[in-house]
Specification:
Structural class: alpha/beta
Largest sheet: 8 strands, parallel
Order of helices and strands: EEEEEEEEHEHEHEHEHEHEHEEEEHHHEE
Shape: globular
Distance between the termini: 31 Å
Helix content: 10-25%
Number of helices: 10
Number of strands: 20
Radius of gyration: 20 Å
Length: about 400
């Protein structure tokens, strides 16, 4: 299913799906792993010389999916080490996720620094790995979800700098509770180092979340989950994020974390600003059974992951391809879903000019789907989407 990296390739006879709609009879041409042209009809023939030619035979053609929040897959959790990070990436790649961020749950700051350093060592040679995401430890105990309460701490300046130094320019995003002591200063330090700051796992009110977004936070970690509900007199962080056109809202579309009817409302309330994320734990693309998430025991039954002995959801077993199928089965529009799995998350990380669409100049990460959205073929590009890691204090734009 996963083919060799794209170099010179022409895909024709496809129905291209992107934010603009569905385009039958489409073709895409790539040279050196980058898209150089696209269109409909027979124009592909002018790009066929010297290239591999792939007849899509009517399959749906989408850009490679981009996951900005994933903790593992294929039976491996990122906390197990660099080999596990790569193994989880391979499992998601087989399901159409060609670029991803390695997320880590809350732990001791020194332990997290070691994990960030391990990912930094991988980024140079593994272009599908975009870097790291710290979902903890700067979270609210009251909204800890599947994070260990003992690991949750305030973001002190020394902790922030320690983590940034360890990541060597590869920390892509960090989730912060804006109510934590030192959160505002930490957010400024992370943003100055090119890290996208997300609001999440918080009891923050609408006004507190809005203030965090006004100060530079640009993501909402898994909207609706681990935060106050959207109430008509206390609208909470979701309403604040929807009202700010600069903010992207993560959505776990597995039918468990957020009801499809609410997902539909969110897509309409924040068009072009919803990013599908897997928030996957190690059981993604795997089997039911017993697993670990950080230091906690997780039981997976029927694809639903909960902390052992509780009904608390412990991440998901999603792949982004299954998120597409879940949304489509609920009647959500396919172009919006595809954009939410491709262009929107790429843009959230500042990579919209190189990832997320099959437009000229972008990496030719190619995914073919059957009409039922099962993955037929994946052809990732070996084109590097981000600069090589830089040290703390470099131009933040260089990281984004």
């Amino acid at each position: 299913m996963v083919g060799p990296p794209v170099e010179d390739l022409v895909v024709h006879g496809a129905e291209l799906v992107d934010a603009a709609g569905r385009h039958p009879g489409a073709w895409v041409a790539a040279r050196g792993g980058a898209v150089v042209a696209r269109g409909t009809g027979d124009g592909w023939r002018g790009h066929a010389d010297g290239a591999e030619v792939l007849d899509a035979d009517g399959a749906l053609l989408v850009a490679g999916m981009v996951d900005v929040h994933s903790h593992g897959g294929g039976g491996r959790a990122h906390e197990e080490g660099p080999d596990a990070v790569l193994a989880a990436g391979a499992a998601h790649l087989a399901h159409g996720t060609t670029r991803r961020v390695a997320s880590f749950v809350a732990d001791d700051v020194d332990v997290l620094a070691e994990r960030l350093a391990g990912v930094a060592d991988l980024v140079e040679d593994h272009v599908h790995l975009l870097g790291s995401h710290l979902e903890g430890p700067f979270l609210a105990v009251e909204r800890k979800g599947a994070h260990s309460a003992d690991a949750l701490v305030d973001p002190t300046p020394s902790a922030v700098q320690h983590l940034l130094r360890a990541a060597r320019g590869t920390l892509r995003q960090v989730t912060l509770d804006p109510r934590r002591d030192g959160a505002a200063e930490a957010a400024r330090a992370f943003a100055a180092a090119g890290v996208v700051v997300a609001v999440g796992h918080t009891e923050a009110s609408h006004d507190e979340a809005a203030a965090a977004f006004a100060a530079g936070a640009r993501l909402l970690t898994h909207a609706f989950n681990a935060m106050p509900v959207l109430h008509h007199r206390a609208p909470g962080p979701v309403a604040a994020a929807c009202a700010d056109d600069r903010v992207v809202l993560e959505l776990i579309l597995d039918g468990e974390h957020v009801h499809p009817a609410v997902a539909s409302l969110l897509l309409r309330a924040a068009p072009g600003r919803v990013a599908l994320v897997s928030d996957s734990m190690s059981a993604a693309a795997g089997e039911d059974g017993r697993y670990r998430l950080g230091g906690l025991d997780v039981v997976v039954e029927g694809g639903r992951a909960v902390l052992e002995g509780t009904d608390t959801l412990a991440g998901s077993t999603l792949t982004l391809a299954r998120a597409l199928r879940t949304g489509a089965a609920a009647g959500l529009p396919l172009p919006a879903l595809v954009a939410a799995a491709t262009a929107v998350p790429a843009r959230a990380l500042g990579l919209g000019s190189v990832l997320g669409t099959l437009e000229p100049g972008r990496a030719a990460d190619v995914v073919l789907l059957d009409e039922d959205l099962a993955v037929r073929a994946v052809r990732p590009s070996a084109l590097r989407a981000v600069p090589r890691p830089r040290g703390v204090g470099a131009d933040p734009a260089g990281h984004r």
